[in-house]
Structures are given as structure tokens and as C-alpha cells.
## 1
Amino acid sequence: MAELIREPFGALVSMRKAYGEALIELGKTHPNVVVLSADVSNSDHSGMFEAVYPDRFFNVGIAEPALVDVAVGLANGGRVPIANTFSFLFATRALEQVRTHLCYGEANVKLAGAYSGLSDSFDGPTHHAITDIAIMRALPNMTVVVPADPLAVKKLLPLVADWQGPVFFRLCRNEVPEIFTDEYTPEIGKGIVLRQGADVSILSCGVLVARSLLAAKCLAEQGISARVVEVHTIKPLDRGLVIACAKETGALVTVEEHSIIGGLGGAVAEVLVENEPVPMERIGVADTFAESGPYSELMDKYGLSVNDIVNAAHRAVARKCK
Amino acid sequence: MIADLSRRAYEFRIQVLQMVYARQTGHIGGAFSIAEVLTALYFHHLRINPSNPNWDDRDRLVFSKGHACAMLYTALAHRGFFPVEDLMTFRALNSRLQGHPERQKTPGIEVPAGPLGHGVAIGAGMALCARMDKSKRRVYAILGDGEINAGVIWEGALVAAKYQLDNLKVILDYNGVQQTGTTTKVLPTEPIVDKWRAFGWHTIEIHGHNQTQVLDALDQADEIHGKPVVIIARTTKGKGVSFMENDSYWHGSPPNEKQFQAALAELNEGVARWQN
């Protein structure tokens, strides 16, 4: 278990650069993969693929609905298109295309949603994506995958490409610590217990998995044994693991860089109330738009700090004892 | 052949009339305007194999104006993609013929349609794919004229021109009437030929109920290189039934019994005109 996590965490590494490198690797093993961009390939680093495979890369301009539709056409002929633009644009401007063709039409298109959460921090709320998970997971047939560190991006991308059907692959813009070791072997649809614990389970996704692990350490010093689970696949959710966590630890905290409405917290809550209701606290952005600012401080201000997670765990445990 | 295809177009109009009348729901006007184009494509021009609908090198047809699908279903059934008897289950529960096209339930349907505007960009993706595969397959997208109000149509047009997709052929069913009135009233789109030309397309303008012109245009489109082609087919909404022609009421309203009988009589005359 412990060998999955680096102790201490590794250096800060750019997640978008890791994504670009992962695309190049994918290109070698997956000749059917084609990459499309809505003119942000230098932002999200999908342009790294273009440099190596210019014949398999298409820039359709600032035209997100067409980006998705062109990808649909390519999928119709058996290609595996990976469409790239900012996450909020997939979830808003191109949503109709995503719903009708990827989900209803079961087009085998992968959406790489760049700059998710608050990670495009300085560009402000117009560029933040804190409702994308809620929107995407509500669509029938859609699979939602959120990598937690640069190594996870590299390990998950080939699985995303091989998964039959549409996938929303949610990416972070920034430099984040490497938390996983090479032993990390994710499987779509399965959660991973990163740290055992008996008093409370912290279920987390994306870059906040690192903060969740730090929070568990703090809690241990305070005498609370916290389990940490990485839920990289929000849909289909690993319901069995969620229920097991509820039964075995009796209290849950969900942690995500997303609105508290409809994301990981919403998905977990749905499973709990129907199967194993236990006290649960949600860490996420309150129902509000954020603001511009440095990434780490921005997350702190909007309720996503290590301390916030620690306090939520205390609240959940306290409710359990009532 | 011209007479045969033209007669078929009228027979198909009768079939559509019966489907919409039976279910009291469906779109007649836009189905009638595209009848000659569809018979030309499915009974002469397209390289397809009804017994193997997913044959790799088949020509692709994106029926972007999905609301007119009763006519498409009729063409597909008579071309052998599924039993003709199924047509009368149109829009009924448990039918393979959904209110708007669905890919999984209906053989011969490439992509869903209904929300308007997808045809050009999806067609561009299909055409790019054909080029990468070094396949000779051609891609056709059938649009309505109201549909081109949608911005994504023009995004797709720019993409197709950028990649010089001469294997993509758009057919614009330019009947001049959309749901709430004429296109000139709702959202003017003229000068339509200039617009497509300015977007980098080769344009061909035809009378869309003249089967000879339709067939010639489809052949001509195959001779164009380095540019996508749009065939602007000037048509009549509700074509073939005098009281339905050019009236936006018949965009999505079903006929009552009296209207049904009157329409049937006129369409039978159309069939008779092309007999022999």
C-alpha cells in the first residue's frame, strides 16, 4: 500500500507537460489515435504530439463545437480522436455536441479537458472549470477520469484511449508534486486505497489527493486514523469501495477541486444515501465563482486547504459519535 | 432512370404521409423537399451495401436535417437496410425508427441528428478520416436551409475548406421556409452562393426537384478537386401537395383525415405522371 506513494512527495512537475509527453508515447503504441485542438495546443501542450506526428494532428481553430463534431467524424471511420481544449468549453460551449454525438451516438471520442478546476488560476472565473465533472457525469454513457499527478496522467492516458466509448479526461494546468511511485497501476472504474485508516475515509480525486494525504498525516498526529482513497474514476464510480469505506470507517470526507455540487462529493453522497448512510462532509468550492490569483493560495481561500480537510474529518468523526 | 427515380420520390412522399398521419406526429414539409435528392443518392449514386451497413469503404451520408428523417427511413427501408413493414412503426414505442435518427437502432444511420448544425463538421471529420485511410469513400451531408442559422455549420465550413476536403459534398435543401416562417423573415441567408464561395467552397446550384439536375450535380461534384463542394438545391417545402407547399405550418404538423385524403390524391397524380 505505502509503496504506491512517494515519501516525501517528489518535486513539482508540470502536469500539462506530462500530458504532452504521454500523448507522444501513446502515438507510438496507438497508430489509430489522432489529436485535435481548438487552437490552444501550446497552452495544454497537445502541440507536443503535433511536433512528432503532424499528419495525425488537426487544429480546427477556436471552434469548440466543430472540434467535437470533427472528432465524431474521425471516430466514425475507426480512429480514436483525442479532442483538446479548455475543460469549461467542453462542458459549456460544446456540450450539445458532446451529449448528442459522444453520449447518445456512442462516438468513441476522448475529451482531454485542460486547465480544469481552479488551475488556470490567474485567468479567473471565466477560465475556471468547477462544474465540469457535474455536467459530464450526468450524461449517459460518459466516463469521467481525473488523474492526480503527472505519473497518473501517463498511466491513465493509454487506458482512456483503450476504453470503449466517450471519456472526459480532466487535466490540471499547473506544476504539482509527484505523489505516486511506479507501483501505481490504476484501472478505470476502480478506486485505490492509498493509506489505511479506521476512523474516517477521505475520498479524493485530482491534485487534491496530495493535500488529502497531508491531511491524513495531520489527523494521525491528532489521534485520528484516516483512510485515504483515490477515486480517479468519478464515473463509473467504484460503488463497492465507497460502501466498504462507509461500513469500515463509519464516516467519509470527499475532497475535490470542483464545486461541492454534483462532483465527486455528489456522486459519493448518492451511493451512501441509497446503501450505507454515514456522516459525510464535502470539501470543494462552495456554490460560488472564485477569483484570480496564485493557484495554491486560491485553493486555500476557497476552502480546499489541508486544514479544511482536517477540520472536515473532525466534523465527520464527531457526527459519527453522536 | 429519371422517370423511375422521380416516380419513386412521389411514392416515398406517400409513404411519409402515411407514417406521419398514422402517428399524428412528424415532419412532412422538409421530408417532401428532399425526396428527389434522396432517391438519387440511395437508388443511383451512393456506394453502399445494405446487407453490410458498416462496410468500411461505404460512402457516408450525414442526414443533418434530422427532423425530416421519415423520408430517410423510407429510402433506407426500400433500399433494403431493414424491412419496409417497419416504417409504419415510426415514432412508436419500441420502434427502431426514433423520432429523430439514432445510430444504434437503425441500420444505415451514421450519426444521430435532430439538434441542427452538425452535418458539415462531422462530415469534415469523416472526410479527413477517408483521406487518412486513402479510401475513395465520399461523404455527403444533407442540410436544411434553416439549419445553416447555426454557427457550427460555418465553423465546419471553414475547417473543410482549410483541409481542402474535396471528398466532402454538402447538399443544402434550400426550400426557403423554416419552422416559423420564410428564411428571409427568420434569418436572411442570401446571397447563399456567395457565402459558401467566400468560405472556400465550390458551389453548384440546381433545381432540387429536377432529377436530371440532381444526378448531374452529384457527378459534377466528384470532378472537383482541392475544395469541398456544396450543392445548393432550390426546392419547395411540402413539394407535391399544393396546400402544403411553401407553408411553414407543414414543417411539423400532421394532417387530419380530410387533409390526408386530399394530399394522397395529389401525390398519386405525381406517381402517375412518372409512370412508364
Note: The longest strand of chain A covers residues 252-259.
## 2
Amino acid sequence: MFRGLRLVPPDTKIRFMAMHKVNFAISLAMIVASILLFAVKGLNYGIDFKGGILIEARTQGPADLSHMRSALENLELGEVSLQNFGRDDDVLIRIEKQEGGEAAQQAAVAKLREALGPGVSYERTEVVGPQVSSELFWQGMLALAAAIVAIVIYIWFRFEWQFGICAVIAEVHDIISAIGLFALLGLEFNLTSVAALLTIAGYSINDTVVVFDRVRENLRKYKTMPLRDLLDLSVNQTLSRTTLTSATALLALLALYFFGGEVLRGFSIAMIWGIVVGTYSSIFVASALLLYLNVRHIAAKDEVPATQTQTP
Amino acid sequence: MLHFSRWKTVMVLAVCGLAALLFAPNLLSRDQLEALPSWLPTRQITLGLDLQGGSHLLLQVETEAVVRDRLDALVDTIRSTLRESRIRYRELGVDGQAVAVTIADPAEVEEATKQLRALDPDTALTADDDGRLRLELSDKAVRERESAAVDQSIEIIRRRIDETGVREPTIQRQGASRILVQLPGLDDPQRIKALIGKTAKMTFHLVDDTADPAEAMNGRPPPGSEVLPLIDRRAPAGAEPRLVVRKRVMVSGENLVDAEPSFSQGAPVVSFRFDAAGGKRFGDVTSHNVGKQLAIVLDGQVISAPNIREPILGGSGIISGSFTVAEAQDLALLLRAGALPAPLEVIEERSVGPGLGADSIAAGKLASIVGTVAVVVFMVLCYGLFGLFANLALAVNILLLLACMSVLGATLTLPGIAGIVLTVGMAVDSNVLIFEHIREEARAGRTPISAIDAGFSRAMTTIIDANLTTLIAGCLLYIFGSGPVRGFAVTLSFGILTTMFTAVTVTRLIVVTWLRRTRPQLLPI
């Protein structure tokens, strides 16, 4: 009889709620650290949001970085950064946003091409003007805010407002800590990073919903069980699913991190962190917070709910 | 719950078969597709510019210039109107979105008001006590003007790009004053950018030979003349040759009907032909000014200033400058396509070379394959036979996802591949939810059939809740996002939809079929 690999044994009876104060402290510390990192160190904004020029050039033979650097510095284009990546003939050139509006950006690209001369092929050229970059930034933030609000409204409709509040706190917790990670590692923050943040939000809420569904079910089933035990029971019952799903998602993301190429690396790191912290927060933040909101009376007044599932 | 009616089974299988059929074109080459009979689907997944290489250019139409042109024209009209009516005026000029003029004699204000009011139906005239009149262009007229300029620009850009032979360009309006140009598969965006960026306004002017060159070069050209830069490749380095040119336009490029690159005395030139009106005017100008220099001005630069040796009456001529062959070709192309109504600026550019695009596809494919294999192996390790069922459902899921994308013409980008990889990771979630419920029920002592039945029905609400929340996020990402965010949102949203379908129906069909065949006493889970 095949029993299958178990990441966690069945019928765990871990007393998650007993450690909730410690976990709240950890979470709080992480949030404060993230905000501080964001405030002090700030994010390494990519050209999507900051404006500027990014060029991926391929030289014939290994690139002579110092030679290229001095050629470019003579152009007085402001801050220029050169970096080898992948192969030794691939050079990533970043130039800060040029003063003088939109046309100045294009002029700078032309000057750069002239300075580097022939024999260099341009694999990628991205130029984002000052106007577009600020629009992209606000659009990205708008998408982020809209998604969070919509998710919370959905939870609020499907569950009770208490669940909605806990879910949104957990979600904001995950997003802030992910932003903290971006600041800490100096990962480039661009449009793809916004997509990563939103997916973290989606994944985190997905995880939370699974636990909450079980909590709701148990609230109806065990009307007299103390809330703390009931939450422990619900988390334990869903623990096997939570770890399995997180594990498969992590496997997929690790593949993306190692094989997906340079462009998606930052995205994969953020997502991997998001899955870890999203799993943590659905148990230790979202569920534990339910302790403090009076969810017990929901089950009482909700005697014959339409969505009640069959229970033995 | 576990009963699967025959027609449902047929439907599920039909959907899978259809998905396979719709996905199939992606496996074929372009030539093979063309050889297929027409009733077969031929749509392939569209690859984003980041994967196939190409250029994405966002252009801003300088609409202020259009309005400014119109106001300048209004100034000219007002000047001639007032002169004809012998009304004395001062301080005539553009003031914001209006033209202002002060009438010198208060007795003539009424007459002037009458005259100017009749000039332009799009303007509103206001007068104050000391004889100052303002003709304000209405906001509606400004908007119409700007909108027409954007439409016209799109048309001109299309003509210019079509002539270069770029395949399947996308040229569309974005917002009030922007144009998005996408050029797939392009390896040298510089030339196209140069072509698009030129206004290509060509005019013929007489060179002002009465001007004192030294005086003019110091910024004091005679009234009615201006100093323009002269493009001359033979000039010594560092020298910036300039020419004093009369402002009056003798003939304009609008009258051109054709322009072709050709050779004259071994050098590349552009030969052109005027329409009837232009040809007549060109004939008049050249007849009256034999021996003088005629300046050909393109976008504020003199490209050539030949001497008029004899009247040119046939309505055609050549522009000889110090061109290279490519320059002559591009100039002819620009003149044929016509001038832009307003200058354009590239405000966003994203170009990817075809080589890098191919690298990205390879990396994405590798990541997808490795990720899928890891997930597949892991599922079998965890659930044995049921893991195999989940993997079968996962395969159907990916097939459905790719079929949907092919049929709807959705664009696959690099972040989109990341979305697929993530879908692979999360797609098994619904199955895991079901299987965990089944395990739980089986442990509680239920018979296999009843455990499976309960497992599916109990997991249902959770599956719907969990996936719908992610789907909401995906849709909002698509609506508000741009670029990579959108590409990611597309695959994520499709992935969730197909996941819900496969988890609920395909997995169930597989499990039920297996249950009927084997009638197990104990569940291998």
C-alpha cells in the first residue's frame, strides 16, 4: 500500500496559537525593519519608474569594461554604470535620466552608440522618459492598491468582516516585508517587481482563504470548542495542504530562478520570499489575529448557512 | 456526485481534443501552416517583442506645435485683414491660446471687431476698454485640431513604415496625444526611429543675397530673412556653415506628388515631381530668379542650395546634396510619405534584438520544463497513483492554457512565461485540496467511494474561494498594469481559469473512471 511522502505527519497537534505573541513580535519587528530599510536605504528603482537608459550590448570578444567606462564618462551623461553579466562579452549599461526632457534621452543613446563605435551589437535598448516613468510608477501603485482592495471586498462578501480585516492585515504584512526584501538586497524595483508583489498578494490570500474556509467550517461544527483550540485544529487540518502547495510552488519558482535567465531572477527571488512569508502569515498573522476579533458569534447567528458543506 | 453522465464525459473529452487541435498549430512552422487546409485552425501564440525581438516605441505628438501653427496663421490673416481695411493697430501677437491685438484709434475698434469676428468661427472675440482685442481659440477647436494631428501622424507613420518593409507593424493611438508603434522582429530600430522622428517638412526658399553676412550671422538678419544651418559634408570639421534665407515659402513640399532616389553625375540625388499647382509655381519662381540660389529646407535645415541655371518648367527637379545612397533613399521615402503635422518625440523605447529574444525563449522553455518535471515527480512522490492523476490533469491544464492563448491571440511575454511556471506550481493546489480532504475522510473511516465523494464536494468551496481571489488580482493586474505586468496577468488569469476547470472536471473524471474500473477496498492515498 503506497502511503506517499508526507511533508508533515497526519493529525499534527501543533499548538500554533500558543506562540502567537512571539510571532506577532517577530512580524512587527520585520515590518518595522522593512519600513526603516525602505525609508533609509530606499528602493533601487529601475528605469521603468526612475526614467533613464538601459542598454545591453554584446562586444566582439571579452568586453574591456574600463575602456568602455572611460569612453562613456567622457560624454558627461551623468551617472553611468557598466556591468558584466552572463557571458563576458555581455555588458549591461545604465545611464541615469538625462536633464532636458524626452528628446535628450534619445540624443544620449545616439552619443553612446557613437562613443562605443562599431563592433558592438545592441541586444536590448530601453529608454524611458521622465513623463512615462512617473506614469508607469503611479499606474503600478494603482494596480497594487486596486488588487488589494478588490481581494478584501471579495473576502468580506464571502466571509465576515472580521476575516476580511485579518486577511488584509496579513496581506499588507506580506507586501511590506517583500518591499523590505527589495530594499535589503538592493533588487531592482521595476514593473516586473510590481507583478511579483501582486502575485505575492494573490498567493498569500489564496493560502489564507484555505485556512479561513476551514475555520468557518469548524466554527459551525464545533460550537462549544474554545476559539484558540478551534484555530489550532483548523491550521493543523490544513497544514498538510499548505506545506504541499507551498512546496510545489517553490519548486516551480526555483526552476525559474536557476533557469529563467537574468531578467526574471529578481522576480523569482521576490516570489520565493513571498511564498515563504505568505505561508507564515496565513497561519501566524491572519489566523492568530482571529483570536482578537470576536468571530465566535458568527457561528452562533449563522445557524443554517446556504454554503454549509456536508459534515458527518 | 460521483456519477458522470455519458454526455458529460464526452464533453470533457471533446474539450480536451479541441484544446489539442487548437494548440497544434504552435508545433508547426509557418510554411507547414500555409500548406494546411483552410478549415484547420492556424493561429499561433503571438510572441511578445521581448521574445521575438523588435521595437516598442511610444511617441508623443507635440500638439502644442499644431495649435501654435494655427495661431501664427491667424496672426497673418489678422494682419492682412486690418491692413486692407486700413485700420491701424499695434502689439499684434500670440498670447496663450489667443491672438491679441490693440487697435490704435478707439473710433476704429467697432469696425475691427466686426472684421475680426468674421475671420474664424472657432474663435471667441473679447474686447476691453483700451482697444485691446483678443481672439481666443475655443477648447473644442484646439482638441479637434490636436486629435486630427494625431490621426494624420498615424497615417504618415504608417506610410513611412510600410515603405521600409517591416512586417506586421502595430500603430495605434494611445490616449489623447500618443502613438504606440510596435515593430516585431526588427534588428535595427535606429533607422526606423530616425525615419519616424523626422517631421519632413520641406520648403523651397530664395537665398537672401542682399544680406550682410557678418551682420546676419551675429543674429541680426534683415527683416523677412533668417539664418539656417546648412548641411554640407564637404565642410571642414568644426565649421558650422549657415545660410541667410528669405522666410517666404516659394513652393512647399505639400505640392510634391513623387520622390525617388536616383543618380546624377555619379552622386546620389533625389528626384521629385510637383503636382500641377506646385509645378506652375516652381516654374514661375525659377523663371524669375535665374542665376540666384534656391535653398531647399528640410525641418529647419538647408539640405542643398543650388543655383537656378534655367527655368524649370516641367514640374520636376532634383535635390542634390551631399547624400549617401541610404540618405537619398530615406529622404525620398520621407518626401513621398508626406510631412508630419507636428514634431514627434520618442518618450519610451524598448528594443530587443532577435538574438536576445531567442535566448529568452530558450531560458523560459528550460525553466518551464524543469519546473514541470519537478512538480510532476513531487506529486507522484506525495500521492502515488493520485499524484499521477493530478499530473494528467496538470498536462491537460497546460494544454488548455496554451490553446486559449493561441485562439484568443493573447501575447506571450517573458513575464508571461513566469506566469505559466507559477501556474504549474499552483495548479496542483486544487488537486492537493481535494486529495487532502479525501485522505481525511478515508482516515475517518469512510469507504473509498464515500471518501472520494465527500472529498470533492468539501473541497469545492475552498477551491472556488481560493482561485477567485487570485483571479480578481489577475484581472486587476491586466486592467491597470502595463507591459510586463500585463503579460504576466494574462497567463496567470488564464491559468487560474483552466485550473478550476481541470481540477473540478478532469480530475474527477479520471478518479471516477479509475474507481469504476478497479473498485478498490482501500484508497492508495
Note: Residues 220 and 304 of chain A are 9 Å apart (CA to CA).
## 3
Amino acid sequence: MPSLRPTPVLALIAAATLLASGCSGGSSEAASSDGDAAQTATASFTWQRNTAGEDEDPVYEETTVEVPVDPEKIVVFDLASLDTIGALGGEVAGAPLDSVPDYLRDHLADDAFNAGTLFEADLVGIEAQQPDLIVIGGRSAGLYDDLSRIAPTVDLSTRGSYTENLERNVTFLGEVLNAPDAAAAAITELEDGVAQARAATAKLGTGLGLMVSGGRLSAQAPAGEDASGRNARGGLIYDAFGVRPAVADVEAATHGEPVSFEFLLEHDPDYLWVVDRDAATGQDQGAQPAAAVLDNDIVKQTKAARNGHVVYLDPVAWYIVFGGVDTTKIMIDDVLQAAA
Amino acid sequence: MLSFLLTAASLFTGVSDVSPLALWNGADEGRAVFLLAVSRVPRTLALVLAGASLSIAGLIMQMLVRNKFVEPSTTGVTEFATLGMLTTMFLWPGAPVPARAAVAAGCGVFGTWVFLRVVRVVPVRQLVLVPLVGLVLGGVVGAVTTFFAYRADLVQSLGQWSQGSFAGIVPGRYEFLWIAAAMVVIAWIAADRFSVAGMGEAFSTNLGLNHRRVVAVGMVVVAVITATVLVTAGTVPFLGLVVPNVVSLLVGDNVRRSLPWVAALGAAFVLGCDVVARLVRFPYEIPLSVVVGVVGAGVFLWLLLRRGTRAH
């Protein structure tokens, strides 16, 4: 695919204004009747954009995009950003509707349109809706080239520290939505929550993040500081919430490393933090739920099972969304409840 | 002998320390014995059953089609069975495992029938082209499966459970494979009839054999084996192809004589691959299907290439 250089920012803004005016071929002077003043204010966002293909080593290019403040129509592919926008009082005009979890539904506008899936965009549909801002991240990060031709597009993917990313994204979205105070308050609350959770996990001994899917187990690994996108997901329990890994050297693959039940018994962590992937992706697909998979004689011998320390994390929050204001609160609660 | 050694290797390979020595000393309050009973023995048994029955399934297909290069995964049978399983997941979520296996087996039977029809109708001149036709058929069915999986957001799950792996085998999760073992017994009883049926309808009718019925039995046996292994451990490619061919090189083509060899070598091959899968990235595992695929594909290519030098 030829990767066109992103058009200069000014042209983008001009295009966006033209689009927002909703006139076909009219003069570019015609601004929308409301929010005229708001259209002129912009917030800028800079990030290291990965320009390499999916299976190549990442090549980062610093990208800065100016986006309108108080945009009328926001299209969001990144569910964590959908969460944050809603939490800060904003509303989303378009999203991958089939993938929006129940607890984030009320962040959608009543007439929200379906923008595609978590991985792919309905470019024609989005173009027709003429959004003012598009937010991508994680699974949808690769859509940048296509979407940035339609409207100013920012990529709020996770890279490095989860909490730093959260602060950065909440601050930026607060700027965009003209709600800096709400953003600051949310950040303070989340920082306190994460600090509490870390204090709690410090007393819990070792832990192992475990993903269960289709009857198979994957051990999750601390992703460390260089994690990006979805690779950071499995490591959240260690990296963000301070659980001491029972196994130090699991490589951070997107879905962890396949292990057997024996592995659990051999490394015998004090706590098992389980994400039931099949429950997360909303498929009651006949694949046994994680609890049934882990209900066997080998697991029953482990310290975690004997002490009732097998924790089932909210799969949607930890696996699908893993970011955003309300989702982080759910994650904090999960950890605090386990430690209680 | 080889099988015996590999069985021993399988019993004593794993994350935990279970060695004959530990068993002997009764160390760790019988933990070694416990692990042997609930982890190693079931896994080894499941591998033996799956390996033997899949190889036999390949042998039966080769007899029915009279072609050395067919087996469930090169004729679309596996893909049809997978499609059946996906359909069950989609239309009847939470179906019990036997029901899923039954639907998968039904679709597998249909897949075998389709393949046999295609091969009969399309005059395929060269032996090597038959599995190609099967691969194309499988590709078409696989594409349908992927399309449905994509629409239903099941793509990743499909990948997860269709990847052959015996890492999750514990008592109560592999007993289904005994059905595959029963199929092997049926195959053994009917082996000569399959050979005759492979000679064609006219030939078998002259010998007083009900051709249609024998072919139907063969199809059911192949499909049931494929489906039971699929629902228990996922897909294991190339096995039914490689093992019977190697056996035919070693002991010739008399099915009566080669059948036990095929079963034994199939079991040994899968055991060996699974031990490798457990050791490559110790203490983590890699999917068994990856190991079998790499080794099996290599042997398959070798078999294809050496055909040129041998009259058949």
C-alpha cells in the first residue's frame, strides 16, 4: 500500500471546516451556525506514530495533529478513548457499535452510526458523516493513513507506562472537550486508586496473569516500559498494578505464552489473575468458561486455588478496553476486591 | 520399541519434576505420582489415541481414493468438520461436547462425500493432482468458515481452538478419543473391504461386495475420527498422509499387515512431536500442530519429490 505523506495540517483543517459546514461545493466561508468560535480554537497532539507494516519492526515518526476544540462529531475506534470522552461529558457520533461494551453505551449519541469494527473502518460511511475528529488506538492504529484523509485523526495507543498514557490521553481529551477541570479531577482520582491498588498488591506475594481461551491457557508477562499497543495488555496486572510476577521471563506476546496446568503447579503463584478471553469477546461459544477450564485436580493443588486466590478479572475491562477513566476504575476495584 | 521409548519420554517430560527416580523415592509426598496420574498419563494416552486414529483415517482415505496423497486435511474433510463446529458454536452456543462432535462428524461425512464426487466427476490424470483438488476444496470451505467467523467476531477463537494442542488435557477432557479408537477397530475389521472398494465399483460388485455401503462406512469412520480429535485437541495436519506412506515404504502395501504399523507409527510420531512441542520453549509450550506441520510438510514434500523416481 503506498503510504501517502499526510497532507499538511492546514489543508486538513480547511477540509474539516469545509466538511463541517455540511455544504456540498458551497463556499468555504460558510461555517456551521453554532460553534463558530469553537471551530477556530485547536488543540494539538503529538505522538510517535508507527509507520511500519503490521509484521515489520516498528518505525516511529513524530506526528503532530491539530484538532478542533469542542468538535461536533467525534468518531472513535479506540474504546478506551470512548470511555474517557464519555466520562468527561462528551458524546461520540460514531464507533464500532458491535464492540462497544454495555457500560460504555451511554457515551454514544442517540443516533450514533456504526463506523466499522475494532480493526477496520467503514471509510465510505465515515466520509459521509463528515466527522470533525477521529480517535484511533491499539487495534485500529493501522487505520491512520486512510482516516487522516477524512478528518483530523489522533492515535491514543498505549506505549510505555499505562498510568502515564492514561494521564496524557485524559489531559488531551479534556483539552479537546473543553473540560480541563473534569480531566484533572479524573486524573487525581485514578492516581489515588492505582496507588491504593499497588499498596494492596504489595502484600499479596507473587502473582501470575493468565488468559484462558478455548480451553487453552496463556501465561501473561510484565511488558515493561517498551510495551506498545496490545502487547501492554497482558502485563497491566504487573506493570500498572504492581503484582510481583511469579515467573519473571515470560515474553510479552500479544496473547501471552501457551502453558500447561503443570506450569501453574510448578511455579505456584500466590495469586492467579485470570482473564476469560472468550467471555471478553462476548462469545458464549460453547468454549468452556475459564472457571470450568481451571476446575481440575492439578489446579486444585496450587496455592492460589487452595487459598481461594484465583481472581477472575472483568474480561471486557482488562482485555478489550484496557484504558480510559471508567474502565481503569473497574480495574482498580477488581484488584482491591481481590486484596480485601 | 520406538513407541515404547517415546511413551516413556512423554510420561517424564513436563514442567514439573517427575522422574523415575522421584517416583521410586516417593519424594514430595507422592506429588510425582499425582502428576503422573492427572497430567502425564492422560496426555500421553490422548496423544497415542489421536495419533493412531488420525493415521488410520488417512490410510482409509488413501484406500478409498486409491491415492497416496490424500488424508482428511488435504481433502477438505477437516475444513468441513471445522465449519460444522463453528456452525454449532454459532447456532447452539453452550452445546455439549458430544453434540458438537456429532455435528462436526456429520459435516465431515458430507465433506468426504463431496470430495469423492469431485474426484470421480473431474477426471484427474495425475496422482499428485488429486490432493491439489482436495486442497482447493478445503480452501473454499475454509474461506467460508473464515467469512462466518469474521462476521460473528470469532476469528481469534477459531484460531485458538483449531490449533492442535494437548496442553490442556486432564482426566475428563479426552475420553471422547476412545470413540476414535473404536473407529480404528472397525477399520481393522473392514480393512480388506476398503482395499477392494478402492478398486472401483464394478470390480467390487464382481467380488460380491456392496460398494456403496463400504464406501459409506469408510467415510463415516474417517469423519468421526477427524471430528473427535478436532473437538478434543484441534487440528493436527499431515499426519494421516505422512504415516501411511512411510509405513508403505517400510512394510509394503498389504493393508492387513501395515495397519498395526500405521497405528503404532502414528502414535509414536505424535508423541515425539508433542515432546518436542513441550521442550522447544521450556517451560512454555508451542502448539503441537506447529511441530507436526513443519515435520509433516517436510516429509510430504520428500514423498512427492521421490515419486518421480519410482514406478507405482
Note: DSSP finds 13 helices and no strands in chain B.
